[in-house]
Amino acid sequence: MSQIDEFYGSFIDGRMASATGADIFESYNPANGEVLTTIQAGGAAEVDEAVASAKAAFPAWRDMPGVEKGRILLAISEKIKENTDRLVALESLDNGKSRMDAQFDVMTSARYFEYYAGVADKLAGETIPLGETHISYTRSEPFGVTAHIVPWNAAFQQAARGVAPALVAGNTAVVKPAEDTSVTTVELAKIALEAGLPPGVLNVVTGLGKDAGASLVSHPGVGRVTFTGSVPTGQEIMRASAEHLNPLTLELGGKAPNIIFEDAPIEAAIRGSLMAININAGQVCAAGSRLLVHRSLHDEVVDGLVELNRKVVLGPGTSDATMGPITTAAQYQKVQEYLQIGKDEGAQVAIGGNVATGEGLEGGQFIEPTIFTGVDNSMRIAQEEIFGPVLSVIPFETEEEAVAIANDTKYGLTAGLWTQNLGRAHRVAAQIEAGQVSVNDFFAGGIQAPFGGYKQSGFGREKGMHAVSEYLQTKTVSMKLS
């Protein structure tokens, strides 16, 4: 696939907006800089319409038996699988992901709906003993309309990640995708409708964050907000949500430590550590961007990483490349700035360190996968989220020093550690200040495992049953029996 629809507009109440008379902006293919499609620049009017549609659809969806909700979510999962090839191609074109990364995202999205479909008829409250004269029980009830602000780095997967548990809890949803990667979120809404989801239960408003996004998170008809993105934007959303005291799930930045101890399974650690930073060209908030290596293994690990990095093939996502471009022009510029910052701070470039050029990369936003050595944890490249294929290698001597370096950051989203010592694995995992820790496999947590941050990486949990509880509020009913 090299061409997509010429226009993608807001999808509200089961219908996509018409291009006629719509305010629009252009969306670009990050692999070559060419215009890919045009997107409706929705704003407050479209948000009002979407929230009204979601509110109107809410009572019937809330009251639908759980087993029927589950069947619809399962049908959405199957419909995603039926459209896998097309969705993979669209995500590669729109986002720049390699085919492998896009395939993973699409199949994970299908799995979200499949997983939560199985939860739909199993949500229940509890009874509370109050003695013989009274009875008390709880009800788990949805909020109503939930708002989902989806980032550009994993548009399709993260839309599914938030929408599936929100819907199974009985809420209706309005999604605002990032302006740079709106295509597959609109496609998700279309697929859901085809699979039997009633109109209005899932709505998408396309547009700029300052217009559509700001209007959505501050809308009085919204009952709960979920956001994935940067810390500054998360803080703005908190302030906007405070007006209506809306609860939030915020999944923000990360600067994950990935620790290789002296007793690590070394070959697996090298492969896993490179994947932890190079996945999606490093554009992952959970990426293992700080590699802490025991000094006795430092040179061996760096040499192994450099050798593997030489095999990375850059190119458009629709090719056989193993790494695609940086998705947005602003992020492309930011990564280049951090490459220079690292050099200016005195870090040594073991490999990469530049904009990537060559045949097939013309006009694209490609960065050479980069490894910095000689990094001190106080350097900006070790403290600030770069969001690109840039790895900082930091040596350590003792377990205590490794833990101290790992926790010396404002972030606390994920962490990894490599060791064959079971006691050390449990001990260090307990001391790491992060919401998710993987041992001997950096991205070990699946969709069943709760995911979220400590410190400035946010709060609330997505994935697993914890995500469903985020979209439910508890009511207690107590009564006297005589």
TrEMBL record:
Keywords linked to the UniProt accession: Oxidoreductase
Any one GO molecular-function label of the UniProt entry: oxidoreductase activity, acting on the aldehyde or oxo group of donors, NAD or NADP as acceptor
Domain of life: Bacteria
Ranges of residues in domain Aldehyde dehydrogenase: 23-477
Residues annotated as catalytic: 251
A Pfam family: Aldedh
Sequence similarity: Belongs to the aldehyde dehydrogenase family.
PANTHER family cross-referenced by the UniProt entry: ALDEHYDE DEHYDROGENASE-RELATED (PTHR11699)
Protein name: Aldehyde dehydrogenase
Species of the source: Corynebacterium maris DSM 45190
